[in-house]
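Q: Could you fold this chain for me?
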Amino acid sequence: MKKILYIILGVALMSIMTVTAFAESKGLVVVAGSTGRTGQLVVKHLNSEGYQVRAMVRSMEKGKRVLGDDIAMVKADVTQPDTLPPLLEGADFLISAIGTGGGDISPEDVDYGGSVALIDAAKTAGIKKFIMVTSGGVTWRFHPVNFFNDDVLKWKRKAEIHLRSSGMAHVIVRPNGGLSDDPANENKIAFEQEDKWGGSISREDVAIVCVEALGYKQADNKTFEMQNDDDGAVVKDVDWAKTFGAMVVESDNF
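A: Sure. Below is the predicted structure, expressed as structure tokens.
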């Protein structure tokens, strides 16, 4: 009788361990641009959704100051491609929220060149899905942002084109309009694929959309804009399968 009891207990324990392991095995996500204002929120929501997180940082000191001591970090720089393979080793997914943060580095070097280096390294590393945050307005022939920011939107668009041609499963998220620090679910949001004039959008809403896109195959290879819209829904009420499923892969917003 004792042997039977031990066997039952052993099977039950193994079942619990299997369920727990499955619940915790959403995958390892590398976050590029993790110390930026959007990237920090991506890290936060990946953690809350049960993903493992590895943050790319250019400075370990800044990384710990911004993200804390509990986040795994690897020192790497998209403008130094040889630093990227160790960053991506063993990772399943990548979310890139990189962008020129001022200084002497140009959008051509970071938003384009850095993105290309990251995309190429991700493909070599076997990344399963690449989520890239760019911007609304990238397809415009003339956009005021380009005049004051070294053609940043032009370079972001070229990076998008490189990602689409890579053959990797990907999602391109374009915050449309000014980024705000409003908390998630404060504003109703909507999704489009026309790259029209935008208004504003919360960084936290953008971060949540990036994280949700990881888990839905319906989002694969889609490019879309998102912005505040009174006719939309707050992010917690979005039907993700339906929303991503309604989008097309080849749209007029390339």
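A (continued): The two ends are 69 Å apart (CA to CA).
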